[in-house]
Design brief:
- This protein is α+β, with helices and mostly antiparallel strands and about 160 residues long.
- It has a single domain, classed as Heat Shock Protein 90 (2-Layer Sandwich), CATH 3.30.565.
- A six-stranded mixed β-sheet has the order 3-4-2-1-8-7.
- The C terminus is likely disordered.
Length: about 160
């Protein structure tokens, strides 16, 4: 899911553009956001962006091929985990933002109902920028710590901490 959203953002952002990845939590939800300054999404197509075998009809999309399944699979995985995904774009040529919202992980409970909190993962120092494929600027940042007051952490924060 994460790889698909980031890869799409890079793929549809021309040289000199930018892709930003942000991660954090808001209340009881983990938030993962990918924004780009790429080709954008036609407002008429936006309601269908997560449909299977659907692609926006324009030359840049067709240049990369594909079956039109990636975003449908992203939505399916997110929904299986109790989350939501949404796409936003001001229109063609104006970039796009994909936001995934997932419920935070809770401490596990054993058969007797005793709580076993998950190991706390300290938030990594993540505010990175660099040049990605053909001159696309990549930026990653934390929206906030991602650590709940009870010491449990978001699955996405744990994953990002392991990757950094």
């Amino acid at each position: 899911m994460v790889l698909n959203l980031i890869t799409n953002a890079i793929k549809f952002t021309p040289e000199g553009g930018a892709v930003a990845v942000a991660l954090g939590n808001q209340g009881e939800d983990a938030i993962f956001r990918v924004s780009d300054t790429g080709t954008g999404i036609d407002p008429e197509f936006l309601p269908f962006i997560f449909d299977r075998f659907t692609q926006q009809e324009n030359s840049s999309v067709r240049r990369f091929g594909g079956l039109g399944l990636g975003l449908s699979i992203v939505r399916h995985i997110v929904e299986l985990h109790g989350g939501k995904v949404r796409a936003e774009s001001a229109g063609t040529g104006k970039g796009a933002t994909f936001t995934v919202t997932l419920p935070l992980l809770r401490g596990a409970q054993d058969d007797a109902g005793r709580s076993h909190p998950r190991r706390s993962v300290p938030p990594p120092k993540l505010k990175r920028s660099g040049t990605g494929p053909p001159g696309v600027t990549l930026t990653a940042q934390y929206l906030n710590s991602g650590i709940l007051p009870n010491g449990s952490s978001t699955g996405l924060v744990s994953m990002f901490a392991a990757a950094s």
